[in-house]
Specification:
Elements lengths: L1 E2 L5 E2 L4 E6 L7 H5 L3 E7 L7 H9 L10 E6 L5 H20 L12 H20 L9
Antiparallel strand pairs: 1-2, 3-4, 4-5
Helix pairs in contact: 2-3
Length: 140
C-alpha cells in the first residue's frame, strides 16, 4: 500500500513492478542479476480520486504516456529492494505534484517612481552615447 496523503492511497495490486537487468558498469553483477525495476501504473483504471486522475493526465511529463500509463525505471542502486523503494518514492512524488494547485497570477503595474527611474536611466544612457560622437574641430 502506497500512501500518498492521509486520505489517498494506492493499492499494491494497481502497481506493476518488473525486475530487469541494469545498464552501465557493474561487472558480473549487472550481467547476472536483475536489479533494476520497471514500474507501471495505469492512471485510468486506478482507484485514485478523479481530481488526481485529471491532473495527472494533464501533466506534460515524459514518464506519462498518451494512454495514461506512468512508466518509471529505477536502477541507481545495486540492490533490487532499494531500487523498488526509489521507484515507489518517485511515483508518490509524481502523484503528489499533481495535487499542487498553482496560484493565479495577479497582473500588476509598475509604480510611477519605477517608471520615472527607468526613463531617467534611458535618458542618461542616451546622453552618454551622444557625447561619444565626433568632435567638430571647426568651431574652435
Amino acid at each position: 500500500m502506497l500512501e500518498i496523503s492521509n486520505t489517498v492511497t494506492i493499492a499494491d495490486a494497481e502497481i506493476e513492478t518488473t525486475a530487469v537487468r541494469s545498464q552501465g558498469p557493474g561487472g558480473q553483477n549487472v550481467n547476472k542479476v536483475s536489479t533494476a525495476i520497471h514500474l507501471r501504473f495505469d492512471i485510468n483504471s486506478s482507484t485514485l480520486p478523479d481530481f488526481y486522475k485529471e491532473k495527472l493526465l494533464e501533466m506534460r511529463d515524459h514518464r506519462i504516456t498518451k494512454d495514461g500509463i506512468i512508466n518509471i525505471k529505477s536502477q541507481e542502486s545495486r540492490s533490487q529492494e532499494e531500487n523498488k523503494e526509489a521507484a515507489f518514492q518517485r511515483l508518490k512524488e509524481l502523484v503528489k505534484s499533481a495535487a499542487i494547485v498553482q496560484k493565479k497570477r495577479k497582473a500588476t503595474k509598475p509604480t510611477k517612481n519605477s517608471q520615472k527611474r527607468r526613463m531617467d536611466s534611458k535618458t542618461k544612457h542616451a546622453n552618454t552615447k551622444k557625447m561619444r560622437g565626433k568632435v567638430d574641430s571647426s568651431q574652435g
